[in-house]
Structure formats: C-alpha cells, structure tokens
Amino acid sequence: KTSFKIAVLPGDGIGPEVVNESTKILNAIGEVFNYTFEFTYGLMGAEAIFKTGNPLPEETLQICKEADAVLFGAIGDPSFDHNPDAKVRPEQGLLKLRKELGLFANIRPLKTYSSLIDKSPLKKEIIEGADIQIFRELVSGIYFGEKFTDEEAGYAYDICKYYRDEIAPIVHMAFQEAQKRRKKLTLIDKANVLDTSRLWRKVCKEIAQEYPDVELDFMFVDNAAMQLILNPKQFDVIVTENMFGDIISDEASVIGGSIGLLPSASIGNENALFEPIHGSYPQAKGKGIANPVASVLSTAMMLDYLGLGQAAEKLRQSVEYAIENKYVTMDLNAEQHYSTGEVGSFIADYI
Amino acid sequence: KTSFKIAVLPGDGIGPEVVNESTKILNAIGEVFNYTFEFTYGLMGAEAIFKTGNPLPEETLQICKEADAVLFGAIGDPSFDHNPDAKVRPEQGLLKLRKELGLFANIRPLKTYSSLIDKSPLKKEIIEGADIQIFRELVSGIYFGEKFTDEEAGYAYDICKYYRDEIAPIVHMAFQEAQKRRKKLTLIDKANVLDTSRLWRKVCKEIAQEYPDVELDFMFVDNAAMQLILNPKQFDVIVTENMFGDIISDEASVIGGSIGLLPSASIGNENALFEPIHGSYPQAKGKGIANPVASVLSTAMMLDYLGLGQAAEKLRQSVEYAIENKYVTMDLNAEQHYSTGEVGSFIADYI
Ligand SMILES: CC(C)[C@H](C(=O)O)[C@@H](O)C(=O)O
Ligand SMILES: CC(C)[C@H](C(=O)O)[C@@H](O)C(=O)O
User: Fold this and answer.
1) What mean pLDDT, rounded, does chain B reach?
2) Domains plus CATH for chain B?
3) Cβ(A222) to ligand 2 under 6 A?
4) CA distance readout (Å), A167 to A179, A208, A215
5) How far is B159 from chain A (nearest CA, A)?
C-alpha cells in the first residue's frame, strides 16, 4: 500500500499551525518515498462548536472512521474553561472521538534530548538518560463513567468502572512494548483503597504469566507522583488507568524540559489518532511561535503505525538534526529562534 | 488550660521511632512552659492487625475521641501491599479513623529550607522561596465512596460523590488561610470532565463572595501536576478533593527535597490528628536512621492547634537551629549524621 487517507483535525488554538507543518512534511515524505497522503479536513473542538454547535460533528466522525489514520492538533478554549455551566464543551468532542474510534491505548514516549537537558526543571543528574513509555487506558474509567448532579439535594457523583476486558488489551500492549525495551513494567494504581485498582492488579498478575521475561511491579499513584521526580530513570514502561494516566503522563511530560517536543498515539483495533501532548495554548495562537515538533513527531508515530517505518526513521532523524543545529522555535532557544513555519520547512527540506 | 490529653498512635515501620522523639520533646516543652501532656497509647495499622485482627481497635478509637489531640506515626506494611486479596488492611484503619473523627481537612505546609535547597530534585532557581499550603479534603470522595467488585461478571467500580456540605467547610478554611498569607487560592479539579469537580467549582465561586480580598483561580489536575514542577512559586494556598489532594500533595512534598521534614495536620470540628507526611518506610525500621523532624514539626502544628502558639514557635526555632547547625539524620547529610534519638534529644535540650 502506498496511498493513505489521513483525516486531519486541526482543532483549536495553536492546533492548526502545528498540524499545518505536519501535512507539509508528509507531502515531502510522499515525494521522497513515493507515497500519496490524501488529506481530508474535519472540524473539532471549540472551533466546531462555534461553527456547528457540536464539538464533534457527525461529518468529522465519518471522515475519521474512513481514514487510515487521524492527525489531530489540539482542543480547548478559555471561554469554556471559565464557564462550569456550559453544557456543550470542546473536551466532549475529544472524549467522544476516542470512544467512537475505540482508541483504548494512549501511548506517550518520554525521551530526553542531550542538547535540551538544561531546559528541564529537574537537575541534570536526575533526568539525563530517562526513557519512559507510558500506556494510559483512554476510553473507560471515571472520565467515561456515569455522572450525575442533583442541584436540589446539593450533590454530584462520578463513577469509575472497569471491566476485565477493558483492562486486558492495554496491559498486553504494554507487556509487549516492555519486551522490546528494558523488560520492566510498572502498574500505577491505588490498590490499597480502590476496588478498580485491585482489579487492575489482578488482571496484570494473570497476564504477566504470558510474559515471563518482563518484570512486573506495582506502585501507588501518590508514590508514583513522587518517584517520577525523584528518580525517573527507575521506570521503563508504565501502564495505568485513565485518570491516573492523565495526571502522571502530564507530570512526566514536563520533566524532560520540552513538552513542545512530545508526541502521542492513541490506538484502537481499527483506528488510530496522533496528537502532540501540549494543549491548544490559546495565548500563542496565530503568532507563529508554536513549536511544531511534537506534532511532527506524532506524525512519525503515525508513519510507524501505517507500516512506513523507514519514513518514520528519516523523519525522526530530521527532527534531531534540526534540534541539534538549533533550528528551533522560541521555547527552546530564546536568543536565536525561528517561526513555526520555518522550523517545519527546514525539516521538510531536510527530508 | 495547661493540661492536655494526647492520644499517641505510633503505628508501623518507623512510626514508633519518630513519635518517640515527639513525646520526648513534648515532655521538655511541658517542663519549660509548665504544661502537662498526658500520653495514652493506642494500637493502629498493621501492628494492630497482627495483635488484634483489627487495623483500628475500638479501644484506640475511644482513646482518640477522648483526647485533646492525636499524635500519629505512620502505617503500612509490605506484606499487605503485595497481597491485593487481603480483606483486612492497615490503610482501612487510617481511613476509618479519619472518618470517625470527622477529620475533613488535611493541611500540608510546604516550605523550603535554604540550607537544604540543594537536596531538591528541582533546580535551585525554580524551587527556592516556594511556600505552599495544601488543603486536601479527607473524608469523602472516591476513597470513601461505595465500592463493588463482581468477580463473576469481571468488573469493579468505585464511586466519587460529594455533597455541598462536604466541600464548603474546607473551602472556608482554605480561604481564611489565604487571607493570612499572600491572598491567593487555587482550586485543583477536573471540571472539564467530572460532575463532582464542577460542583467544587460552583461552591468555591459562591464562597469566594465572602472573601473579596482573596483571588480565586482554578487549575485542572493534569496541568497542576505539571505546574508544581515548572513553577511552584505561583501557588499560595491550594484546595482540592481527596484523591487529587493525595496525588498533588505527595508530588509537592518531594520538590522541596526533604520529605523527611514535612508535617501535616488533619482537622475536624472536634478532633485533630498530627502526622508526618512520610510513610512507614519499613526498610529503615529499627535502624535509628529515620528523620524525626517531620513528626516533631507535626507536633508543633499540634501545639498551635491546642492554643500553645508560643511553645510551637519555640519548637520550630529549635528545629531550624538543629538543621542550620547540621544536627541532622543521614538523609540530610551523608557525611556527618546523627541518629533519630540524638536529633530528638538535641531539639529537646535546646528547648
Ligand atoms: C481534554 C481532556 C478531556 C483530556 C483528558 O483529560 O483526557 C486531556 O487532558 C488529555 O490528556 O488528552
Ligand atoms: C494510606 C492511604 C490510604 C493514605 C491516603 O491515600 O489517603 C495515604 O496515602 C495518605 O495520603 O495519607
């Protein structure tokens, strides 16, 4: 297969700017490697609410379902964040898209770049060499559980529920990844308090039998929040439920000092979506200062997913070349910096 | 009032050792300031399970209810952590004690010590001068909600529920503390997804009317996990629900570089409990290497609570004197260090 349908959802804030560099670069890759990428654009997030009233219009969902992969920018808008009463919110679009496409595993690699190590808030000796892969369950748990508010009686609740079948697939994925790496898997949970966490522990222990070469250990989420800062090098692959994954993977994303560089993949049985870890960053919108690298590296994860490993490798090399040669945006080098478009074009040209 | 009944629950691991220094020091304070502290000891945690089968024996609960304040060490034992099927667990004792005593607010001050700033995993310029006070709701939310496991059907759930009445008291407390400090209060929640978080936001906004001199802002928990590392100085007082508080306050506890120094208070309408933030640290048990300072500073919080502000101040000064003069345990100075008991006696003598 040499021709691919890509659904492109630029979304809100700096989303459109960074995604634009990714499509630019995909075109360059197409030329060099003789692939065709056909882009179909869809509305999503606050942008979609403003234009259609719906954060995930039916048409967008269709485009995604028919595509080989989805390239996604970011969502979120301050006008919704400051209004707890808003019934329609950009986040609902993303949550619904994940659910509809069955994207049960959110994968975030955390690597450090030696030329950027001094950007980390952590001391060099603590962070240098850390290399973690986080698997976050993405379509179940408390974010998708039943929710209810009774204004009169003055209470609200959210239910966190997990079935074995919702736990097992991502645990298998994480074990398989650990086998390719340093063979250590850590489950993060709160099994000393929560029933769902105890179920996660059980399922992990059972599945561990099938991967005798991988060492499985367990860590309470409160302790994990500390250990990530104290000694991030102790981790290889992490697997965890939805909400813990949200918190822990965001915490992990800043310790390397370069959240603007971190990609993510959300994988299901039939679909996959690729997005930078950074959010919509509305303050930077339209200024040409957003760092496109996270989106570009998400594109590299997409190429891997599409079976285009060689192109993915080439793309990663190009990004590293740009970074090592300080062809970077303002966030990485205040003295001499380039615009979003310049960095994207530099990478595209190098390919 | 010059005579006080103190319930002492040493608990597990290094708990007994550090609490022992606290009572030693309270005796010294009693002599100097002419107070009487009457100690009544109770079993709690794994220790209590081994001896009575119950992590919180009825007798212990009674002792606590009759006391003016509770001094607590730590609980937790590896034999339970590694057994997800254990029906009786040390943590249940602590959770039940919090609930029974109505300790709805867990308060953790985070301060940095200039002589210890190089112990922080964060770079000096990021952490130096950070001064945060965290208010964690402690007796509701998902840790206390209905839990259920259906082995047959292969699922489990945990319910996070909040009533307005469970939110308002701690929010008032946090606003009042902010008034005495830099007048900034941050609510940490996940209001873009959870109903309970939206209820927290509403209640906070309403109560804010009564504290017009305090600036209230909101932060999503995933972002907060990042901001604590990127820029801890932006926080003054933080208020949050039980589980987010568990994670965020533990994360905050390590950024100063000295979790062995951090105290906490758990306050209710009629009772209060004081405990170090560090856990039972079973590996260090009985070795005389545990740092007693967190327990001692918890004791200072207890003195404040009992209305003995002058004694509390004197105790804090003594601790600072010990630290500045490097009269510390191994964790703070590997080259020259003193035992748990030596550090405790040094502080007691200084008083
Ligand atoms: C926007 C929000 C619903 C989302 C989440 O929490 O899942 C985001 O924080 C993320 O991590 O992708
Ligand atoms: C032991 C456990 C139940 C407890 C909690 O999570 O509340 C502990 O982690 C704490 O923070 O005091």
Assistant:
1) 94
2) 1-104+268-351 (3.40.718.10), 106-260 (3.40.718.10)
3) yes
4) 19, 13, 18
5) 5
